Amino acid sequence: MTDSTINTIQAILKADTTVSEDHAANILRCCRQTTVRRRLINAREAMVILGGISRPTLRALVKRGVLQQINFSSRKARFDYAEVQRFANNGASAESTGAADRP
Asked: In the β-sheet with 40-41, what is the strand arrangement from edge to edge?
């Protein structure tokens, strides 16, 4: 977000008497944070990173909640590169950790 946009938001927050100083500070802190973009990869790239697994195996990992699939349409799905790398590096320990976190 540009400085001029943040200054405008700050002026609006100061003018609004219903917004507390703490709330305004939290809003401005969020505005100043930089956005981290995720690198998204397709299923084929994910399968290669995971050691050449098959598409059914990748689907099973998604179904079990081990990996998250990001759907753009019914035919276009992507995976977070960092998440796939973490699973590839940690293997079964990442899977068991994820399973323990679920209710």
From this structure: 40-41, 77-80, 69-71
Say whether both 26 and 68 belong to one domain. Answer: no
Residues 94 and 65 in one domain: yes
Q: In residues, how long is the chain?
A: 103
Tokens read off for 58: 């990748």
- Residues 43-52, mean pLDDT to the nearest whole number: 95
* Sign of the CA dihedral with 69 first, then 72, 73, and 76 last: negative
- Residue 83 parent element (H or E): helix 81-90
Helix axes 21-32, 3-15, angle to 10 degrees: 170
Q: Are residues 46 and 94 in the same domain?
A: yes
Domain span holding position 7 = 3-32
Query: pLDDT per residue over 10-25, tens digit each?
Result: 999 999 999 999 999 9
